[in-house]
Amino acid sequence: xxxxxxxxxxxxxxxxxxxxxxxxxxxxxxxxxxxxxxxxxxxxxxxxxxxxxxxxxxxxxxxxx
Length: 65
Hints:
It is a single chain. By secondary structure, this protein is mainly alpha-helical. Helices cover 60% and strands 0% of the residues. Helix 2 (42-52) packs across helix 3. It starts with 6 loop residues before the first helix and ends with a helix.
């Protein structure tokens, strides 16, 4: 008899599918997470201000190097 997926995993997959389908979220691959201690995908983190507020980011980089 096949084992059923744990309810927690089923819920996680359902939520992931909803966010991808309805809101256009992307799913990261494990290799994209560069800071595994804090679970941060640094390339994606930096892409957001570069795309959304490039002038503000330039000012911050000058101020804080």
